[in-house]
Structures
1.
Amino acid sequence: MTTRAQDTRERSRRRGRLLPGLCSGVVTVAAAVAAGELVAALLGTASPVVSVGDAVVDNTPQALAEWAIALFGTADKLVLVSGIVVVLVLVGGVLGVVALRRPLWGYAGLAAFGAAGAAAVFIGRGDDVRALIPVLTAVAVGVLSLNALLRAARRVRTAPRRGAAVETAREEAVPAGAGAAEHRPGRRAFVLTSVGIAAGAGAAGALSRLVSGWPGGAGGPGSVALPAAARPLPPLPAATELGVPGLTPFVTPNRDFYRIDTALTVPRPDPVRWRLRVHGMVDHPFEIDLAELLDLPLVEADITLTCVSNQVGGDLAGNARWLGYPLADLLRRAGVHTDADQILATSHDGWTCGTPTEVVMDGRNALLAVGMNGEPLPPEHGFPARTVIPGLYGYVSATKWITDLELTRFADEQAYWADRGWALRAPIHTMSRIDVPAPLGRVDAGEVVLAGVAWAQHRGVDAVEVRVDDGPWAPAELARVPGIDTWVQWVTEVTVGPGRHDVEVRATDATGAVQTAERAEPIPGGATGHHRIAFTAT
C-alpha cells in the first residue's frame, strides 16, 4: 500500500512535470507570436495570426460566416483573432508538457505551426510572399525559446525538493543531501528564463503595435497634404441639422464612422509605393501613383454609405464629405470595352469588389476618394485611396485600400461576396430609422418629439411618415439636404398619454416607391422592413 507521504510525493512530481511544461509552452507561443507580429509590422505585411485568420475567414462555410456576423457584428474580427490566440496558447501548453519528456515532439509541433502559417500565406487572398518571413521568424524564435526553457525546466526536475526521501533522490539520480543546494538555483534559473523571454515577447508585441499604428510616420495620413478641390462644394446649410438632442448628426465624424470589412488588422499601404493599376478589357491600361492622383482636378461630394449587413434600425450607415477623382474619368482614360459590364476592384489585402460598370458611368458622383471630411482618409477607412459609389451597398461599391481596377464581365469573374452567394448588383433599399426617443426610453407624457434619419441613396427621400400605436400615418418634417446621395433628418411631434407606446416609421423615395413593411434579413441583398420602437410616457 502507498502511504500518504508517497501520494504527496507523487503529486509533487506530477506538478513538477506539469507546471514547468505548461509555462514553457505558453511562453514559447507568446515569444513566437510576438516575433512574427514585430517582423510583419516592420515589413508592412500580414502577421502569421492575420494570415491564418484570413484563411479561416475565406474558407468558412457561408452559413457559419453569416451566423458570426449576425452574432458578433463589428466585434467579429476581435472574436476571431482572440480565438486563434486562445487556441495557440492551449495547444502550446500541451506541447510544452509533452516536450518536457520528448523534446522532439515540441519542436515538431512548432514546425506544424509554421507549416500551417505558410499554407495560410499561399492559400490566402493576397499575393505578398513576404508574409512568409514573419512565419519563419516566429518558428525560429519559438524553437530557440523552447530550447532555453526546456533546458532550464530539466534543471528543476533533476533537483529534489527539500526534505525528499532518499528513495526519491535515488530515482532522480541525485544524492539525498544535494536537494537544498540544487533545487533553488534550478528553479530560480527557470523562473528567470521564463520571465526574460516573456518580457521580450511583451516588448516585441508592444513595439509591433507602435510600428503598425504610428499615424504620423512616413507611411501614414499625416505625410499627405490634400489639395483643394477643383470644384469645392459650398458649406452645408444650417438647415441640414434639425437640432434635436440625440438625433444622428448629418455629417458623421471620421472617428464615429462605421467600419465593416474582412481585414483582421488595418492595412497600411505605403503612400510612396502605392499604385493603382487599371487594366483588363480596356484599350489603354495604365498605372497611377498617389502624387499623380493628387495632381488631378479633384471634386467633392456628400455621400452616405450603408453596409449590407445593416439591420432594420441599425447604425451601419454614415455620411461624409468625400474628396476624390471621378471614377468615370479614370475609366474613360483607359477606354473601356462596351462588353465590360463589371469593374473588379482589389484591395491591398486581396479582398475583391464587383461593381456594375454602367453605374459608374451614368453620371453619379462615383469617386476614387482620397479625403474624408476635410482630412486624408483615415487608415481604417481606406488610406491612401478607396472607391465611394453612391446608391449601392458597400460590398459592391466601397473598396478600401484599393490597388487594382480590372474591367471584366460578371459572367467571367466573381468578387469576394458574390462568390459566396450575395447579390451581384445590390442597390440600397429605401430605409428610415427612429433615433429619438431611444428604444425603451422614458419620456414625459404630453408633447413628445420623434426624430430620426432616412435614406434612399441616388434616388433621394421625398417623404417620411410615422404612426403611433398602429394609428394613421402622419407626415414628418424633413431637413434640407445638398443632394440625393445623402440621408436626411426628420422630426415630428405627437401627443401621448401615460403608458407604453409603439412608434413606426416609413419613407418614400423620389421615384414614389414607399418603403416596404416586409421583413427581410440583410443577406443576400440588404434588410427590409419598418423600424419600430417602444417607449414609456410617465
2.
Amino acid sequence: MLKYFYDNDLVKYSDKEITNWKDAIQESCELLKNRNIINQNYVEEVISCVEEHGPYIVIVPQVAMPHSSEKSEGVFGTAISFTKLKKSVKFDGEDQKEAILFFTLAAKNPEEHMTNIQNLSELLMTEGLIEDLVDTKSIEDYKLVMTKYNL
C-alpha cells in the first residue's frame, strides 16, 4: 500500500508549521482536493465530525485517518493519501490524542470505503512501520521505508 501512495503521487511531506488539528486535517486533504477527488465541503464535513464526535480519527497513537461518510456530496472519487506533518498536533479532548501521520480517505460507495479502511488497518499493523514513518522527513526517506517493507 505504501507503493500505492507513491505510485499515485499521494504522498506529501508538509513544510507548514501546523499547530492545530483543524489545520492538520485541511493540510491532509490537499492532495485529494488538488486531484478533484474531494472538495472543500468534504474537508469541512470531516472537521465537523471530529468536533461532534471527538478525535475518533486518531486510530492509533500518532496516526489519524480523516474521513467522512461515503454519502458525502463532496466526494467525487476513491483514494487514500498520506501526509506527514513536521510535528504532531494535539486533538481536543480529555485523552489528549496526537497525530503526525495522516491517512486521508475518500470513497464514493460503502464497499470501497470499507475496503480502504481494511487495507489501511492491515498496513498499520505491520510491526515497526508506524515508527519508521514517523521518523521519515522526506520522500527519499519514505522510499527507503517503502523498500524496507516491500509494501
3.
Amino acid sequence: MITAEGLTKRYGEKTAVSDATFTVQTGKVTGFLGPNGAGKSTTMRMIVGLDAPTAGSVAIDGRPYRAFRSPLTEVGALLDAKAVHTGRSARDHLRVMAATHGIPRRRVDEVIELAGLTSVANKRAGKFSLGMGQRLGIASALLGDPHTLILDEPVNGLDPEGVRWVRGFVRALAAEGRTVLLSSHLMSEMSLTADHVIVLGRGRVLADAPIDRLVQDWTQRGVAVASPRLTELAALLSAPDVTITPTGDGAAQVEGLGAPAIGDIAAAHGIPLHALAETTGSLEDAYMALTADAVEYTSKELS
C-alpha cells in the first residue's frame, strides 16, 4: 500500500504538487491520470525518494522508501526507460542491478524471458527501439520480484502484443496481492487495466475512486435510438427535460428518458425501432470532464 498525506512539492515559485492525499490499495491496479504538467511524474519521484517533498509525506507499506534495506526487492519502479548505460547489453544492465542486491543471475534470465527480451538480451541497450527500451525498463522493475510496482507510461512505444502483455501481467500481479500504480495517457487501455484511478490536475488530487464510480459521476447516461421515422419519434419524445442529439442518418442519442419509456412510446404510435440501447460514458469522457479546467497545455483544433 502507498499512502500520501498532504504531499507537496515546490520548485521556487512553481508548485508541482499541492497537498495531495491518496491511497494506492494493495491487490488492485491503480491508474494514475492527469494532463501533462499535472504532477504525476513528480509524485512518483517523491514516492521512491528521488525528490524530497516540500511538505507532507509518502510511505510504502508504512515506511518511506529510503528506509528499505533492499529496495529492489520491495519496490520496482519504471520512471524513465532511457535511464540505462547505452553501451551495455540488456543482460549486463540487469546483471549490474542484480549485483547491487545479491539477486542471483538466474533471476536476470527469468525477467529477460518474461519481458520478451530473449532475442535481444546481448544487444546494446543504446540500439533498442522505444518499445524494446520499455521492455527493458519493465524487466528492471521486476528484477527483485517486488511487492510494489510503480510504472510511468509502461506501454509507451509497445506494439499491441506488448500492450496486451503489460495489461495481463499487472492485473495478475495485483491478483497476487501486490500493489500496482500505473500511469498512462491511453484512456481506453486504462479502462481495461485499472480497478481504481487517481486523477491529478495542476498538482491537486481531483478524484480518487473506482473507475465505475468515476464514470457514473462524471458522464451522462443515455439511449441510442434508430428509426426510419426518427423525426416523428423525436417530436413525441420532446419534453423540457429530454435532450435529443442526432448522431447519424435516422439515429439519435436521447438523454432524460430510459429505453423502456422510449420503447413504449414508439410502440404506442406504431413507430418501428431499428436500435434501442442504453449507453454510458467512457473513462475518457469522465476524464475530459473532470480535467477540463486543469489542462495547462492545449492544442488548437483545425476547423
4.
Amino acid sequence: MKKDEMNTRRKHIVIIGGGFGGIATAKALENANVDITIIDRLNHHLFQPLLYQVATAELSPGDIAAPIRAIINKNPKAKVILAEVKKIDPKNKSVHLQNGTSITFDQLVMATGAQYNYFGHEEWAEYAPGMKSVSDALKVREQLLMSMEEAEQLQDHNKRKSLLTYVIIGGGPTGVEMAGAIAETAGNGSKHGYKTIKPEDAKIYLIEAGPRILNAFPESLGEKARKTLKKMGVKVLLNTPVTNIEKNKVHLKVGSIETPNIIWAAGIKASSLLDSLKVKQDRTGRVFVSPDLSIPEYPDIFIIGDSAHSKGKDGKPLPALAPVATQQGKFVGNLLAQGGKRQKTAKFNYIDKGTMATIGRAKAVADIKGLKFSGFFAWFLWSFIHVLSLIGFRNRTRVFVEWIWNYFTYKRGVRLITDRSKCNSCTTYEKPHNELLKMQV
C-alpha cells in the first residue's frame, strides 16, 4: 500500500461485545473518522440489571432489550456482525470467528462481559442456572411458574413442599433482588389466580457462603436488607457454603434442601476468549490493563468492563458493574477518536455514583456518595435511575407503565409458560397428562 493511501485510509476499530461497554464505545466514536465493526453472538443489547424481573414474570424480554443495529444505525461508518469469536491473534491484529472467517483491525476493544463462576463445578450449571441472557431468564421463569402450576394440583404435602421451595445461591445484588421478587410472586399465589397456594406455603432460601449479604454495600445496609427479606418470608442462611448440587437437591455444609427451583447468583468470571491473548490475568480471568485500559503488551488492544482488571482510586479492583463498563467504554471511545493524537499518559478514573439494590415493592437500599438510604425513597431512586438507563423511549415507557401497574395491582402480567419440555422439575411435570389426571383421582 502506498504511503498516501495509508494516510487517507480510515482506521478500523473492532468492538467485541454489544453490552454496556461496547455500546458506550461505539457511541463515543460516532463523530470520529473511523470504521467500526461490532461483533456479538447475539443481535441485541440487554439491560442485565433487570433480567431478574424477566425471570419473575414482571417484565417481558423486549422491555429490557434493543437490537444493536437499531442503536448504532445513525452512524454510517459502523456495522454489526452476528457471530461468535473463536480467538484473537494479537500479533497479527486479527479476530477469528467460529465460522472460519477472520477480521483484521487497527484497534480492538474487548467488552466480552462475564459468565457465572461455579468454582470448578461446571456440572452444577445444569441444575442451578444463572442469569446472563434472555434465554437464561426465560428458563428460570418457566421453572418457577411450572412449579406453582404443579403445586396447585397436588394434595400431597411433601410433594407440594418441594415444589414451593426456592433456593437462591449468592447474596450479592442479583441474589437479593431475585429472592425478594420470588417472595412477592410465590408468596402471593392467590393474587395470581392460584387458589390452593397460601403465602405460608412458599419457602425461600437465600444462601450466602460469607458472613453477610450485599458485601459491596456498607454493613448497615446489608443488615437492613437481611431484615427486610426476613419480614418478606425469606430465610437468609449466612456462612453456609454449598457443597454439592444435584437434580432437585442442594447440599449444604450442614444438611440439604430438596427443590427443583435452584438459581445460581454466587459469582462471575471473565470470558474464556481472553485466554487466547496469552497475557497476565487474575484468578477470575480478568486481564490486567494499563491506566488507559490497554494491554501493556499490545497498546492497540483495550479491555473494558467485566473483562478488565482495573484499579480504582482506593487501589482495589473495580467491580463488575454496568456503570463501570459504561464509563470505560466512553473513555476508550473518546481516546480512540483522537486518532494519531492519542495521549500516552491518559488514565481512566471511575466516578462512583453510588450502588443500589431493590428488595421488593417499595423496598430497596442505596449508598450514594456516603449517604445511605433504604425503604421507599431508595426504591424510588433505584426505579428512576433504571428507567433512565434503559435504551430507547419505547423501553423506558413500557417499563415505567408496567412498574406502575404492578405497584398498584400486585399483579405480574408476563406469567407465560411456552416451552414445557425444558423444565428441570422431576415431579408431575414429566408425567403424561393422562397419568397426571389418574394420580389426582
